[in-house]
Amino acid sequence: MIQLDNVTKRFPGGQEALSGLSLSVDKGEMVFVTGHSGAGKSTLLRLIALIDRPTSGQVIVDNQNTRRVKRRKIPAYRRQIGMVFQDHKLLADRPVFDNVALPLIIAGVSHRDAGRRVRAALDQVSLLHKEKQNPLTLSAGEQQRVGIARAIVTRPKLLIADEPTGNLDPDLSLEVMRIFRRFNEVGVTLLIASHDISLIDRLGCRRIALEGGKLQLEEEDEVDEWL
Amino acid sequence: MAVTRNADAVAPVRSSSAFSIWLTRHASTSLGALGRLSRQPFASLMIIVVIGVTLALPAAINVVVKNAQSMSGSWDNALDFSVYLDMDLTVSEAEGLARLIEQRADVASVELVTADEALLEFKQQSGFGEALNQLGDNPLPHALVVRPGPGNTGASLRLLQEEIGNLPETDLVQVDTEWVQRFHAILDIVRQAIAIGAALLGIAIVVIVGNTIRLDIENRRDEIEVTKLIGGSNAFVRRPFLWTGFWYGLLGGTFALLLVQYGLYLLRDPVTRLAGLYQGNIAVATLGVTESGAIIGTAVFLGLFASWVTAARHMRRIEPR
């Protein structure tokens, strides 16, 4: 699903966020990217989302070489990927329902179908009863779940998340991870950047550890029983 | 709670036609833009007033010029000109010539003023009666007063005068009414000035609307970024701003129309009085359907153009960071 070959991302100042990074994520996997801030986690996700382009090397997502995705085709490319952000990036000027419906409106889905699918997505994050509220009136955990609902409402095959639990306390973090786990169970590939090692250890998924833009270790933990 | 993935939810559902979806989206975007304007009523009203006044100005002057033109056209007698005949022409020859000219299609009537009549009138009006009595012969020629037909333009009028002047029996064509032609020439200049002024004001509208849209874009930068982040194209994020420009244009143009119509309403009574004084049948020309449409159409075009240029420029710059 995701393949990086010898990818380097150098910023104009000469600082390298990623140095010759190669890795691959299979279809249906749920993989965590860990590392200290500045290790290159966010840069990796930005390259996958085509917010940035690599200085050298190849990023292949769902059999598409991102190098060949022209600027004009970036919106269509991004629509195939669900994205969850640490600050959830909800729009405060419209209710929860409209926030979740936005990707469907962009994709040109009819009003009636959009309504049905928004409610299905909100149901999956247990927020169906809050569809008319403004995101600002929700708790941090609820806001992040709305962000997740928006990411999955178009039923993407790949979901990437940058520190999705960064602003949440442990209980809420676990709840968010459980939601991710359920998507993974129905075949969605997930790549989640996080520095919350203890939480990741409990989930027992594959871990890609980055250190200074390079691969540090890959390890697969046993699935924790109590999750 | 189980996650279900039914087949029709995977791909965008195609039950409604793409066109009707497109139409619904535009309708909701357009209403959304209108709603946004109504949420900042004061700022929106200012823009609408600016567009209205800016467009009403040239439109109103244009109507005034049109009225002046039709008014000057109704001064039929103002176009009369005198033709002095050769000294050796007899009265009957002059009468014959008068009848001949009168038959022309572009001439309404010809009046003969014989040399004797002219001398008599001159004696009475000039006060030189005694001096003139000393003269043995009448020094004045016979003259014709020609009233051109109603269908004449400035050019055909000049042609008519020239042709009569070239007749062997005529000596001199005296046009007393050059001021009418000058008046027409002035109207032409005024019309040109309006066109230039209107173009400048149009540029002003584009700048004002463009700047407002630019501020709007800056205020909604986060929204644009997020929308682009989750796959919104430039065209998609541009759409609400185009609708905003459209609404500014439509409402501003309508306001301009109301201003002009109200102004004409206020002018109606004084103009009718003036027309009565001149015994002319002057009807105040108002804005027809075409002209009203042109005002609103121009406003909508300017609004759309301004928002298009601004949005196109700024949308490309705003990319997710």
* CATH homolog superfamily of the domain at 1-80 and 189-227 in chain A: P-loop containing nucleotide triphosphate hydrolases
At CATH level 2, the architecture of the domain at 1-80 and 189-227 in chain A is 3-Layer(aba) Sandwich
**Structural class by SSE content of chain A:** alpha/beta
Integer count of domains of chain B: 2
Give the distance, in angstroms, between the N- and C-terminal Cα atoms of chain A: 26 Å
Question: Averaging pLDDT over every residue of chain A, what do you get?
Answer: 87
Helix content of chain B: over 70%
How are strands sequenced across the largest beta sheet of chain A?
A: 6-7-8-3-9-10
> Helical proportion of chain A?
25-40%
How would you summarize what this structure contains?
The complex is a heterodimer of chains A (227) and B (321). Chain A has a domain of 119 residues: P-loop containing nucleotide triphosphate hydrolases (Rossmann fold), CATH 3.40.50.
Quick tags:
A: 227 residues, alpha/beta, Rossmann fold, 6-stranded mixed β-sheet, 4-stranded antiparallel β-sheet, 7 helices, B: alpha+beta, Alpha-Beta Plaits, 11 helices, rod-shaped
Give the helices and strands, then pairings.
The complex is a heterodimer of chains A (227) and B (321).
Chain A: E1 2-10, E2 16-25, E3 30-34, H1 41-48, E4 56-61, E5 64-65, H2 74-78, E6 81-84, H3 96-107, H4 111-124, H5 140-152, E7 158-162, H6 170-185, E8 189-193, H7 197-203, E9 206-211, E10 214-220
Parallel strand pairs in A: 3-8, 3-9, 6-7, 7-8
Antiparallel strand pairs in A: 1-2, 1-4, 4-5, 9-10
Helix pairs in contact in A: 3-4, 3-5, 4-5
Chain B: H1 7-10, H2 18-39, H3 41-73, E1 81-85, H4 91-102, E2 107-113, H5 115-126, H6 129-134, E3 143-148, H7 154-166, E4 170-175, H8 178-219, H9 221-229, H10 234-277, H11 289-317
Antiparallel strand pairs in B: 1-3, 1-4, 2-3
Polypeptide structure, described:
With 227 residues, chain A is an alpha/beta fold. Helices cover 33% and strands 26% of the residues of chain A. Chain A has a domain at 1-80 and 189-227: P-loop containing nucleotide triphosphate hydrolases (Rossmann fold), CATH 3.40.50. Chain A is built from seven helices and ten strands. In chain A, the strands form two sheets. Chain A has a six-stranded mixed β-sheet with strand order 6-7-8-3-9-10, sandwiched between helices. In chain A, helix 3 packs across helix 4 (111-124). Chain A is globular, with a radius of gyration of 17 Å. In chain B, helix 3 (41-73) packs parallel to helix 10. By secondary structure, chain B is α+β, with helices and mostly antiparallel strands. The model of chain B is unreliable at 1-15 (pLDDT under 50). Chain B is built from eleven helices and four strands. Chain B folds into two domains: 30-73 and 183-317, no CATH class; 81-176, 2-Layer Sandwich (Alpha-Beta Plaits). Chain B has a four-stranded antiparallel β-sheet. The chains are: A alpha/beta (227), B alpha+beta (321).
